[in-house]
Amino acid sequence: MSVARTTADRPAPLRRRRAGRRQELFWGAVFLAPVLVSLVVLRIVPAVGAITSSLYKAFPGGIIPATYAGLANYRSLFADPGFNATIVRTIVFNLIINPAQILVALLVAVLLVQRIPLVGLWRTLMFVPVTIPIVGSCIAWGAALNPEGPVNAIISALGGDPQPFFTSPGQALASIMVIASWIGIGYWMLFLVSGLQAIPEELYDAAKIDRAGPVRTFLSITIPMLRRPLLFVLVADTVANFVLFVPVQLLTGGGPQSSTTLLMFEAYRTSFAYGSRNLGAAQVVLLTAIMLFFVLLQFRLLREEGESS
Amino acid sequence: MTTVQPDVAVAAPAAGGSRRQVGSRPMVTAVLTAVAVLVAVAFILPALWILVGSFRPTEDILSSMSPLTWQLFVPTEVTLDNYSRLLLDSGFSRALLNSAFVCIASVLIGLLVSAMAAYTLAVYRFPGRNIVFALVVISFMVPFEAIAIPLSQQFITWGLGNTLIGLILPGIGNGLAVFNLRQYFLGIPASYREAAMLDGASEPRILFGLYLRISGPALTNSAVLIFLGQWTAYLWPLLVISNTRLQLAPVALASTFGERSADYGQNFAGTVLLALVPAISMLVLQRFFGRLSLTSGEK
C-alpha cells in the first residue's frame, strides 16, 4: 500500500494516517530487527550460556557430556587459594589504577584548558598513544622496560639503580599499570577537557566577584560541575581495566610467580590453555559480577554526593 | 598560534581566578607551559622511539638502548629494511589484507544496521521506544571482552570459528554508532520526511535517499568507530582464528613479538603500520569535530 495512492483517495486524512502507521510499524520492525537479533545472539545468548555452563562440570577437553553440578565450580574456585589471590589482585589493581588514571587525566585536562601557547598541540601529542593499537603499545613498552632497555638507561643516567620491571614479582604489575596508563590517560583527558569547556563562564565570573581563590574555585565550581563527565570516565575506565588482557597475555603470561594473573587472563587461560570450559565460564561470571558491583558502587557514591550538595 | 580561548581562559581555575594575580600572569603562563611541554614530551617519547626504531637496523636499536646517549633517538643508519622484510618475507601482508577486509566489511554492514536502527528510534513513535534505545546503547557498551570467551565458544559450535564472517559479526553492533546516528537524525527537520512521503517515497527511500545523504559527519564518525574497533581487535581474533592464513594483523604482530623478541626493528615497523590507520582516522575525525586542533587551541 503506497503512500501516494492513499493521498489520492478522498477521505484521505484518517485512512492515510492509519496506513502510514501500519507502514511505520512494518518498516520500524524491519529496520530494528538486525540490531535486536545481534543483541540477542551476540550479547544475551553468550551471557546466558556462560551462566548455565558455569553450573555444569566436565572433564577438561573430554568427549563425555558435562553434567549438572550446581555451584560446584564456584565452590572449587573459592577453595583454591591461588584463585582467591587472583580475585584480590584484580580488585586491588583496579582500586589503584582507576582513581590514579582519572586523577592524572583530570590534572592534565585542567592544565590543557589553560591559556597557554600551542595548547592544542600538547593535547594532540598526549593523544598519540591512544591511536596506537594496544598490541603495538605493549610491544614498545615491553622493549622499553627490558632490564637492559632505554628506561633503565634513563634511570641510570639520573643516578638510580636499574630495575627488573617485568622480571620481578614486585614490579611486573606496576609495569602493566604504567603501560595501561600511558594509553588511557590521554583518552580520558579528552573527555574531561570537553567537560571543562562546557562549564559556563558565568560561574567563574561569580567566583571571581566573591574573591574565591583558585583552589576554592576548583573545589566549589569545577569539581561539582564536572561530576557527570567524571562519573562517566571513572565508570568507563573501571570497565576497561577489569577486562584488561593484552599486556598480561603478551608480556608476562600472568607471571612472574602469578604476580600479574588478573581475572580476565585467568578466565582465558582456564578456558583455552587448560580446556576447562565450565570452570572458565564460572570465572567469567565472577569477573562480570565483581565489575558490575564496582560500577554500581561508583554510580551510587557519586550520585549521592550530587544529591547532598 | 597563541589563540586566545575566551571560555577556556576564564574556565581556568588555577590561572588567575582573582584580580590580584593579574601582575604575575606571564610568569604563571610560562610555568604552566613548561609543565604542559614536559607532560606532552613524556607521552610522545615512547611513540617517537618506535617510529625512529622502525627505520633503523635492529642492531642499531639494541646498541643504542643503553647506556643513555643522544643516539637513543637518532639512528646511525636509516633503512626501510624492517618494512620490506615484514611485508615481503612474513605473513604480515596477508594479515594486513585480512584486517582491511574485515574492517571494510564491518563498516559497511555496521553502518547499514546502525543507520536502520537509528532511523527507527529517531523518527518513529512507538511504545517502548526509549526502552529499546536504552537497551541497545547499554548492551553494546558492556565491554565486549567480558562475553568474548563464552561467545567465542558459541561461535565455534556454530561453525563460525576460522571464518571471516566469525570475525566480522561481533564488530557490527556498535551502540555508540547507533547513538551518534540517532542524535544526528533527530536534528533533521521532520518536514523533510513529510515532504518525501507526500512525493510517495517509501521508508527505505527516505532513509537511504534522504537521511543518509545528508548525514556525512555522523556517518564518518560512526564508520571510524566501527573501523577502529575492528582494526585494533586482538582478543576476539585470537579466540576464533587458529588458521594463520586468516589471522588479523594485531595477532600476527604479537606472534612475531613472541617468537623472536630480539627483532625489534620488524616489531616496531609493524607497530607503525598498525598505528598509521588509527592516526589518520583521528585526523579525519578532528576535521569534523575540531577537538584536537593541531595548529591552535581553538575549539
What does this 3D model show about the protein?
The complex is a heterodimer of chains A (309) and B (299). Chain A has helices at residues 3-8, 12-53, 72-78, 81-111, 119-131, 134-144, 150-157, 172-197, 201-209, 214-225, 227-242, 246-252, 263-273, 277-308, and strands at residues 56-57, 67-68. In chain A, helix 5 (119-131) crosses helix 8. Chain A has one domain (80-302): Orthogonal Bundle (MetI-like fold), CATH 1.10.3720.10. Chain A has a two-stranded antiparallel ribbon with strand order 1-2. The longest helix of chain A has 42 residues, at 12-53. With 309 residues, chain A is mostly helical. Chain B is globular. Chain B has two domains: 29-78, no CATH class; 86-296, MetI-like fold (Orthogonal Bundle), CATH 1.10.3720.10. Chain B has 299 residues and is mainly α. The longest helix of chain B has 32 residues, at 92-123. Classes of the chains: A mainly alpha (309), B mainly alpha (299). Chains A and B meet through helix 1, helix 2, helix 4, helix 5 and helix 6 of A and helix 1, helix 2, helix 5, helix 6 and helix 7 of B. Chain B: This is ABC-type glycerol-3-phosphate transport system permease component. Chain B: Keywords: Cell membrane, Membrane, Transmembrane, Transmembrane helix, Transport.
